[in-house]
Design brief:
Shape: globular
Helix content: over 70%
Number of strands: 2
Order of helices and strands: HHHHHHHEEHHHHHHHHHHHHH
Number of domains: 1
Number of helices: 20
Largest sheet: 2 strands, antiparallel
CATH class: Mainly Alpha
Length: 451
């Protein structure tokens, strides 16, 4: 455990945060502040009519691809991770979470564009993702293979153990149901969905993700409205805490600017997954005419994850005063909701945790499957499915500190080749965006338009 923690302190230290955030800053300038210039088009591309076609061997609709990506982005990190950031970095961490989200929009645009450019057909089905653009775009088979192995281990296996454990703990706390029974139920549900392939996965995410999101947003808004007088003070604490943490709550938290920046930036980047190479697997299979169209839709994922869900969690924790309770993680989030809803707050969070984590398991399975196809072809999928279901059940019955750390390790390892590819193909992403603005949007012949 100490050895793994030592590795993670290096992997997820200042250097990684610098490169993740720095990549976002670079793309923001190279793409001429795209996330601000094209904000109207982001909403238009996301919610356009005719965006509900069935998923098949040729991919899924643009909106289905977004909900699959959001299912991965919006998970336990939005409930427990944000609470951890506020507990460790104070309210000011929320400001730096917003900043990382703004720059992350440019990064995730680049990932989606590259994923769209470098898709392949494996046994007749369209697939793609970071491993594919690392191999074909960057021309590096080793880094592509290294990424593929890392993401299968990080998300498909260990990450899903963590997610199933989070569900089991929340269900046991709220309803007293034994962990192993919850694990079996989750495995059966996941098995029924993933065995139906891309069509059933897309159907699940496009129906469940909006419902779970609306449920959580309404619950959070109710608590915000119940504490409406605390909105301005909370925002003041967030801004002041970003630059002078000791001025917040009389300095009782004892955090500095360094902690606020570190935890806020890390939570923002880990939650919206910009630069990590995971969400491109969903955006790769979107049926769009130009790669930049899906790049714009991908930005909506960050807006929703960091701008809405993470922000609401943080406001509940700060406005109710729960952040001064000495709690952290999911217990802190529950404390905020209990303050607003009474004991029902614990049940509410358990229900949200179930849907958030279940949808994340489905998406992470899908991301892992794309890399199984890359490594072994379609013949490796059945074995992968069985292993994922076993890991889900096992994950609910064990203490997951080691599994958390291992998941973080492989998460860190998969980020490295992805960032190398993004930085190596910066000029290509710029070229694709220029083609979109100069030609495609004007109705002229486009070099990257799909025929």
């Amino acid at each position: 455990m100490e050895f793994i923690e030592a590795i993670n302190s290096i992997l997820w230290g200042p250097v990684m945060l610098f490169f993740l955030l720095g990549t976002g800053v670079l793309f923001t300038f190279k793409l001429r502040f795209l996330q601000f210039r094209k904000l109207k088009q982001v909403f238009k591309a996301t919610f356009k009519r005719g965006n509900k076609e069935e998923a098949d061997k040729d991919g899924m609709s643009s909106f289905q691809a977004l909900t699959t990506a959001v299912a991965a982005q919006v998970g336990t990190g939005n409930l427990a991770g944000v609470a951890t950031a506020v507990a460790a970095g104070g309210p000011g961490a929320v400001f730096w979470m917003w900043i990382s989200g703004i720059f992350g929009m440019a990064t995730i645009f680049a990932e989606a564009v590259l994923a769209q450019l470098y898709t392949e057909r494996v046994d007749g089905e369209v697939t793609g993702g970071a491993a594919y653009y690392i191999k074909k775009g960057l021309g590096n088979n080793f880094l592509a293979g290294f990424f593929a192995v890392s993401i299968v281990l990080a998300l498909g296996f260990m990450g899903n153990m963590v997610q199933s454990n989070s569900i089991a703990q929340a269900v046991d706390s709220a309803f007293g149901i034994p962990n192993y029974i919850t694990g079996i139920v989750i495995a059966v549900l996941v098995g029924m969905i993933v065995i139906g392939g891309i069509k059933r996965i897309a159907k699940f995410t496009v129906n469940v993700v909006p419902i779970m999101a609306i449920l959580y947003i309404i619950g959070s808004f109710v608590i915000v409205l119940l504490n409406i007088k605390e909105v301005i003070p909370a925002l003041q604490m967030i801004i002041q805490g970003a630059f002078n943490p000791q001025s917040v709550a009389g300095g009782v938290l004892g955090v500095g600017v360094k902690e606020a920046f570190r935890y806020g930036t890390a939570r923002g980047l880990f939650s919206n997954e910009a630069g990590m190479g995971s969400t491109p697997h969903a955006h790769a299979v979107a049926k769009v005419k130009h790669p930049s169209q899906q790049g714009l839709v991908a930005i909506m994922g960050v807006i929703f994850d960091t701008g809405i869900v993470c922000t609401l969690t943080a406001l509940v924790i700060i406005m109710t005063g729960a952040f001064q309770s000495g709690l952290t993680g999911i217990a802190l989030t529950q404390a905020g909701f209990i303050s607003g809803f009474g004991q029902f707050g614990s049940t509410f969070i358990a229900i949200c945790m179930f849907f958030f984590a279940l949808s994340t398991i489905i998406s992470w399975y899908f991301f892992g499957e794309a890399n199984i196809k890359y490594l072994f072809g379609k013949k490796g999928i059945k074995v992968y499915q069985i292993l994922v279901l076993i890991f889900i059940v096992v994950g609910t019955t064990m203490k997951v500190e080691v599994v958390w750390e291992l998941a973080d390790t492989f998460n860190g390892l998969m980020v490295i080749p992805n960032l190398i590819a993004l930085l190596g193909m910066t000029s290509l992403v710029v070229k694709v965006l220029n083609d979109y603005e100069d030609n495609f949007e004007q109705g002229l012949e486009s070099e990257f338009e799909k025929k």
